[in-house]
Write a structure and sequence with these properties.
Length: about 525
C-alpha cells in the first residue's frame, strides 16, 4: 500500500504542477494567476474537490505524444462559495496554452452535467488560445459540446464566465452565451480572430487591447458585464454576484437577515427631482436611498449608461433593478440600452428575481442612425422581455414616462404588478413641447404672437396632462406616493406578491423574441 500511495502522491504532485515551474513563472510575470490559484481564491478555503486530475489527451500527431500532462489543460471540480455548492472549471494556460482538446472538453462537459443534475451554478475561468489546432476536428467537436451545454442549460442554473487571459476563436462564444462575463483590465482579451489575422485580412493594425480587451468589451461591445483592475478583485466580484443569485431556476434567490429598517424614510428624496423637467439628476441617488444599506451591484456599468441595471436587496430579499439615468442622454432608450435592459430582465425572470423599475424616460432615441441600426427591432426585445416576465414587477415613475418608452418600462399594460408614481411624474404620449407643436400647429401659426401663444398652450398642457393623475384615475398607476416613503412602500408591495408561475403565459414551445 505504501508504494501505491507513493505513486498516487507523485501523480497528484505532477498534476498540480501543470506545465511546470517555468510556465507558471511566465504566467505570474504577466500578472496572471494559475488555474489552481484562481480556484483557491474563488472558493471557500479548503472546499475544492478536483475531478479528473489524471486525464491525458490521446493525440499523437505534431509531437503531442511527448507533451502529455495529467489533467490536460483544464482543472475541473466543485466546491463552495459562502457555503453554497458551485461547479467550476479553470483553463490552465501553462499546459499547451490552455487550448481545448477532446479530453479537456469532456472534463468540462462532465462538471456542467453534474451542475445541472444537482442544481448548482457553473463558473468557467477562461485562459485559452481556443481549440487545439493539432487535434483538428476532435477539438472542434469538444468546443461544440461545450456550446451545446451552454445553450441547453441557459436558464437552468446560473452560468458565469471569468475571462482571465485570451479567449479566442469559436471558443469565445461559450462566455458570450453565459449569463455574465467578468474581465480583467490589461490581461483579458476576447476576439474571434487576433490582431495578426485582422491585419492580414483587412489590413488594419490594432492591438490586443483595442480589439478585444476588457475596456473595449465593457464600454463598446457590451460583451463584458464586469471589469476589475486585477484577478483577486475580479474573483471577489464573482463571489459577491453569486450572493444575489439562486442555485437554479427551481429556487428563490437567497435572503439575508435585514440590517436596514424596512420603515426607513428619507427626506432627501424630496430634493432630487429638479423643478425644471429638462434638468438632469442622478438616479443612483434614489437607488442608494431606497435599497438596503445603499448596497447596489451594478451590471454593465460602462455600457449604455443611459440605462442602469443591477442587483440590490429590499428588506433582505434580492431584487433586480432597471432604471433610467437622466444624467446621461436624458435617460433615453437607444439600441444599446434596449439590448442591455432586455437581457437583464430575462435573466431575472429566468431565476425568480423580482424586478424593480425606476422610470424617467423621454422616449426611444429618434434619428436615422438609430432607425437604420434597428431601434425598432432592438426596442422590441425590451418590450418582449418585460411582457413575458412572470416574476413580481414593481414600478416607480419618478418623472417622465412618455410614449412607447412608458409602456415598455414595466407598465400595467405589460403586466406590471404594483405601479407607483411620484407627484413629479409626467405620463403622456410625448412631452408638452412636442405635443403642443403637433396639436396646436395651425393655431400657433395663425396667432399674432405665436411664441407667446405656444408657451401658454405648453403651460396648459403641463397642467392638464404632464402629471400622474390621469393615469391614476384609470388605474394604470396604483398610487401616487410621497417620495420619502418609497422604500417602505416597495417592501410592503414585494412582500404581498408571491412569485407568479408560467400559468400566466399561453401554452407554447417557446416564443420568437425579435433577435
Amino acid at each position: 500500500m505504501k508504494d501505491k500511495l507513493a505513486k498516487l502522491s507523485e501523480l497528484e504532485k505532477k498534476a498540480r504542477a501543470g506545465g511546470g515551474e517555468k510556465r507558471i513563472q511566465q504566467q505570474h510575470d504577466k500578472g496572471k494567476l494559475t488555474a489552481r490559484e484562481r480556484i483557491d481564491l474563488l472558493l471557500d478555503k479548503g472546499s475544492f474537490e478536483e475531478l479528473d486530475p489524471f486525464v491525458t489527451h490521446r493525440a499523437t500527431e505534431f509531437g503531442l505524444a511527448d507533451k502529455q500532462y495529467p489533467g490536460d489543460a483544464v482543472v475541473t471540480g466543485f466546491g463552495r462559495i459562502d457555503g453554497r455548492t458551485v461547479f467550476v472549471y479553470a483553463q490552465d494556460f501553462t499546459v499547451l496554452g490552455g487550448t481545448i482538446s477532446e479530453v479537456s472538453a469532456q472534463k468540462v462537459c462532465k462538471v456542467m452535467d453534474l451542475a445541472v443534475k444537482n442544481g448548482a451554478p457553473i463558473i468557467a475561468i477562461w485562459d485559452s488560445g481556443g481549440a487545439r489546432i493539432q487535434e483538428g476536428v476532435m477539438s472542434l467537436c469538444g468546443v461544440g459540446e461545450i456550446l451545446l451545454r451552454n445553450s441547453l442549460y441557459s436558464g437552468v442554473v446560473p452560468q458565469l464566465s471569468v475571462v482571465m487571459g485570451p479567449s479566442a476563436g469559436g471558443a469565445v462564444y461559450s462566455p458570450a452565451i453565459t449569463d455574465f462575463v467578468f474581465m480583467v483590465k490589461g490581461t483579458s482579451q476576447m476576439y474571434i480572430t487576433g490582431p495578426d489575422v485582422v491585419k492580414a485580412v483587412i489590413s488594419i493594425d490594432i492591438t490586443h487591447e483595442e480589439l478585444g480587451g476588457a475596456k473595449t468589451h465593457a464600454e463598446k461591445s457590451g460583451v463584458a458585464h464586469f471589469i476589475s483592475d486585477n484577478e483577486p478583485d475580479c474573483l471577489k466580484s464573482v463571489r459577491r454576484l453569486l450572493g444575489f443569485l439562486p442555485q437554479s431556476y427551481k429556487e428563490p434567490p437567497p435572503e439575508l437577515k435585514p440590517t436596514d429598517d424596512p420603515e426607513r424614510t428619507d427626506e432627501d428624496l424630496l430634493n432630487i427631482i429638479p423643478d425644471e423637467s429638462s434638468q438632469a439628476y442622478d438616479m443612483k441617488r434614489i437607488i442608494s436611498s431606497v435599497f438596503d444599506n445603499g448596497d447596489f451591484m451594478e451590471v454593465h456599468q460602462s455600457f449604455a449608461p443611459n440605462l442602469i441595471v443591477g442587483f440590490a436587496r429590499l428588506n433582505g430579499k434580492a431584487v433586480g433593478i432597471v432604471a433610467q439615468q437622466p444624467a446621461h442622454m436624458a435617460g433615453i432608450i437607444d439600441i444599446n440600452a434596449s439590448v442591455k435592459g432586455a437581457r437583464f430582465v430575462r435573466f431575472c425572470d429566468a431565476f425568480n428575481i423580482p424586478l424593480v423599475s425606476f422610470v424617467d424616460v423621454p422616449g426611444f432615441m429618434p434619428g436615422p442612425r438609430e432607425e437604420q441600426g434597428g431601434i425598432i427591432r432592438h426596442g422590441a426585445k425590451f418590450i418582449y422581455a418585460y411582457a413575458e416576465a412572470t416574476v413580481p414587477k414593481l414600478t416607480v415613475i419618478t418623472r417622465k414616462a412618455y410614449g412607447g418608452a412608458y409602456i415598455v418600462m414595466s407598465s400595467k399594460h405589460l403586466r406590471g404588478d404594483i405601479n407607483y408614481a411620484w407627484p413629479t411624474a409626467e405620463i403622456a404620449v410625448m412631452g408638452p413641447e412636442g405635443a403642443v407643436n403637433i396639436i396646436y400647429r395651425e393655431a400657433i401659426a395663425k396667432a399674432k404672437d405665436g411664441e407667446q401663444t405656444r408657451q401658454e398652450l405648453v403651460a396648459q398642457y403641463k397642467e392638464s396632462f404632464a402629471n400622474p393623475y390621469q393615469a391614476a384615475a384609470r388605474g394604470y398607476i396604483d398610487n401616487v406616493i410621497d417620495p420619502r416613503v418609497t422604500r417602505p412602500k416597495l417592501i410592503r408591495a414585494l412582500e404581498s406578491l408571491p412569485n407568479r408561475g408560467d400559468d400566466t403565459r399561453p401554452k407554447k414551445k417557446h416564443g420568437n423574441i425579435p433577435l
